[in-house]
Amino acid sequence: QVVESGGGLVQAGGSLRLSCAASGLTFTASAMGWFRQAPGKEREFVAAIAWTGRSTYYANSVKGRFSIARDNAKNMVYLQMNNLKPEDTAVYYCNADPSLGLSLPSDGWGQGTQVTVSS
Q1: N or C end: fewer C-beta atoms under 10 angstroms in the chain?
Q2: pLDDT tens for residues 33-68?
Q3: What is the per-residue DSSP string for 38-60?
């Protein structure tokens, strides 16, 4: 089980930090990922982080602008989003991501958090 928060409305070029609180069953020893779904589009991978936190992976569209991190003591995953663009507008979700971005998880989705970037 996951609960995402931190979304909002921001102007292009601005920043947001998303947070994800995950249950122990979902989080422990799991790679975690962030995903997003824009209106009329399929859900897509954004970023992933290994259980140790030593390896991170990003979609090309966000590389250099977004940064994923985790705090294993708190069962938390974060997504720092800088230099936001209107095309980043979407509902953002976190989930366990054993494939590290190669495939979408089949279940375990939360309600997500809306990010809207105005031009």
Answers
A1: C
A2: 999 999 999 999 999 999 999 999 999 999 999 999
A3: -TTS--EEEEEE-TTSS-EEE-T
